[in-house]
Specification:
about 325 residues, alpha/beta, Quinone Oxidoreductase, Chain A, domain 1, Rossmann fold, 2 domains, 6-stranded parallel beta sheet, 15 strands, about 25% helix, about 25% strand, binds NADP nicotinamide-adenine-dinucleotide phosphate
Length: about 325
Amino acid sequence: MRVFEMQNKISLEALTLTERNDPYPGPEQVLIQMRAAALNYRDAWVVNGLYNPNLPLPFVPLSDGVGSVVAVGHNVTRVKPGDRVAGIFVQNWLSGGMPGGILTLGADMDGVLAQRVVLHQDGVVHVPVHLTDEEAATLPCAAVTAWSSLMVQGALKPGETVLVQGTGGVSLFALQFARLAGAQVIVISSSDEKLEQARLLGATEGINYKKIPDWDKEVLKLTGGKGVDYVVEVGGAGTLSRSLNAVRTGGQVSLIGILSGISAEMFMPPILMKQIRVQGIYVGSRATFEQMNDAIALHKLKPVIDRVFPFEEAIGAFKYMEKGGHVGKIVIRI
Ligand SMILES: NC(=O)c1ccc[n+]([C@@H]2O[C@H](COP(=O)([O-])OP(=O)(O)OC[C@H]3O[C@@H](n4cnc5c(N)ncnc54)[C@H](OP(=O)(O)O)[C@@H]3O)[C@@H](O)[C@H]2O)c1
């Protein structure tokens, strides 16, 4: 089978399409014929050696993908041949709180940028039937993260307001889930064109953070001085202070990403004076993934895909993501 792997060096340039022997499922394992995979910002860090410079080689990247089960080990009961499944991001987090010593696909263990992969039966979920393979491939990381922050670590209610940063994968899922819950959504973005696309998806307000760098003040104006109920914080060091200004007293800032840096000098008083809940988010459990899938299936929600690349052009997909012009998810058809 064909697989993209880094053999001797961790770098995007070293990622090569090679041949590997077909994997064989053990008693508790499932052999999956992959159909589509999706990129996340983390994957660029992984292939550039920024996530784990000591990644054991050879290594197959990407956490997110969907495929058909083609064979199962003799103790497998959760799925059967012909089922369409996605791998869960944290392979050993099934429900409840996150365990210590997590194993994530495409970083702590080989990922899914391959024609066939073998996973433990516990590490897969069925995906909603109304989705195409490309759409279903986008769910394991970005969608589960957005769902966790608003519905599991948050309790979003109709009429509340959510602020999402940018128009990437996590933010657009957060926008769509917030709309399902009957909430208002304010989007900040680098581009007026992208804000227009966000409005078509149901965003109530948009702010161009390039033109209005103090977007937090604008958010306060838009919410009558109160602030938003939730911030889906993907910017990190460069945006957190403004998010603390933009959230209401008693509101929640879900710390998810580090797009604008990993460390910053912080002015702490707003956190205590406004009793803000600053909640770290790390994707979510299998139970959270399945709960989200139920909602996606019920509402026939469709993930936003920016572009689909053929398998052979996977490296082009990484380069495209690094340019940052996308809106929603970038997918590779396998
Ligand atoms: N903790 C977790 O469990 C978890 C899970 C998934 C992702 N993440 C993290 O979340 C972040 C986003 O991931 P993603 O996959 O959604 O990325 P993505 O699809 O690549 O989206 C990135 C988008 O964010 C916007 N952006 C960039 N810098 C910004 C800034 N300074 N302020 C506001 N918006 C900014 C840009 O959109 P515009 O051009 O529209 O501004 C950019 O296109 C990454 O840091 C990723 O590692 C964390």
